[in-house]
């Protein structure tokens, strides 16, 4: 490990990674969230540490142990994840957004448990959450090399490419979540790494293996961009 620390592809670099779901409270006992396990983000954190990076993991609520040599900041909501991500962003050389951030949150959080009414239909008002990775990629100062994920069920690379452009990312990892064997809660994944002028397919393997391949590719493209 000491050898990897000196010679790894990310030796001397600081990598900040978001992972897991966010949880958006409705009242003191309820929230809106999603099925993200956090496995991909945690595997990336481990792989980046093994590649010699100093790693900060900004994590939503997950059931995973903190990877060795990784500094974990636990958050719940998208707004907390954004604040934690921006805190110390000037130290990050690379930012990898693997979190499944809730796109919307309840407009307001009830102070007390919401009581069941007599109506059959109950409507919730939601407001859009800030886009964390787009905020980081749009920084005028201390902008890290920024990598996003795109979870898609159709035209995977097409939608990923439009997210790459819209969010001003350097790279995007396109993830086909329509296949139950890969993505969200499974142990395996298969992705396509998309940049402005290239596409690299990484076939189905364990999230741990895939994370190693992804970190290797991301490190390569990062170093090319700083030349
Ligand atoms: N992301 C983020 N903050 C948000 C929403 C998404 O940082 N509020 C990041 C994710 O971590 C991921 C990338 O943006 O790296 C793409 O997320 P995705 O859900 O695929 O894209 P959205 O822009 O939310 O579009 P949609 O869900 O409509 O496909
Ligand atoms: Ca989304």
TrEMBL record:
Residues spanning the signal sequence: none
Instruction: List required co-factors.
Output: Mg(2+); FMN
Q: Which reactions is this enzyme annotated as catalysing? A: (R)-4'-phosphopantothenate + L-cysteine + CTP = N-[(R)-4-phosphopantothenoyl]-L-cysteine + CMP + diphosphate + H(+); N-[(R)-4-phosphopantothenoyl]-L-cysteine + H(+) = (R)-4'-phosphopantetheine + CO2
Q: Where is this region: Phosphopantothenate--cysteine ligase?
A: 15-227
Pathway named in the protein's UniProt entry: Cofactor biosynthesis; coenzyme A biosynthesis; CoA from (R)-pantothenate: step 2/5; Cofactor biosynthesis; coenzyme A biosynthesis; CoA from (R)-pantothenate: step 3/5
Top-rank taxon, per record: Bacteria
Give the UniProt record's GO annotations in the biological process aspect: coenzyme A biosynthetic process; pantothenate catabolic process
- Record EC number: 4.1.1.36, 6.3.2.5
What's one GO-annotated cellular component? phosphopantothenoylcysteine decarboxylase complex
Q: Cite the entry's keywords alphabetically.
A: Decarboxylase, Flavoprotein, FMN, Ligase, Lyase, Magnesium, Metal-binding, Multifunctional enzyme
Q: How is the cofactor bound?
A: Binds 1 FMN per subunit.
All copies of the DNA/pantothenate metabolism flavoprotein C-terminal domain together span 10-220
Question: For this protein, what is any one GO molecular function term?
Answer: metal ion binding
Positions binding CTP in this chain are 103, 113, 130-133, 149, 163, 167
Record flagged with keyword DNA repair: no
* Similarity field: In the N-terminal section; belongs to the HFCD (homo-oligomeric flavin containing Cys decarboxylase) superfamily.
What is this protein's function?
Answer: Catalyzes two steps in the biosynthesis of coenzyme A. In the first step cysteine is conjugated to 4'-phosphopantothenate to form 4-phosphopantothenoylcysteine, in the latter compound is decarboxylated to form 4'-phosphopantotheine.
Name by which UniProt lists this protein? Coenzyme A biosynthesis bifunctional protein CoaBC
Gene name linked to the record? coaBC
Q: Which residues of the full protein are shown?
A: 177 to 403 of 403
């Amino acid at each position: 490990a000491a050898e990897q620390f000196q010679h790894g592809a990310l030796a001397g670099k600081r990598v900040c990674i978001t992972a897991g779901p966010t949880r958006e409270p409705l009242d003191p006992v309820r929230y809106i969230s999603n099925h993200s396990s956090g496995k991909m983000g945690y595997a990336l954190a481990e792989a980046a540490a093994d590649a010699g990076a100093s790693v900060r993991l900004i994590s939503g609520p997950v059931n995973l142990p903190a990877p060795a040599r990784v500094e974990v900041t636990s958050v719940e909501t998208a707004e907390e994840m954004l604040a934690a991500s921006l805190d110390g962003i000037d130290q990050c050389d690379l930012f990898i957004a693997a979190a499944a951030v809730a796109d919307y949150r309840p407009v307001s959080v009830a102070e007390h448990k919401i009581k069941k009414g007599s109506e059959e239909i109950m409507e919730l008002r939601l407001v859009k959450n800030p886009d964390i990775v787009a905020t980081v990629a749009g920084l005028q100062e201390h902008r890290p090399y920024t990598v996003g994920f795109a979870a898609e069920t159709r035209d995977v690379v097409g939608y990923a490419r439009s997210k790459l452009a819209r969010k001003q990312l350097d790279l995007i990892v396109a993830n086909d979540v329509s296949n139950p064997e890969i993505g969200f809660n499974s142990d395996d994944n298969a992705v396509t790494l998309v940049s402005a002028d290239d596409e690299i397919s990484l076939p189905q393997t364990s999230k741990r293996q895939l994370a190693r391949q992804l970190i290797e590719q991301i490190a390569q493209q990062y170093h090319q961009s700083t030349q």
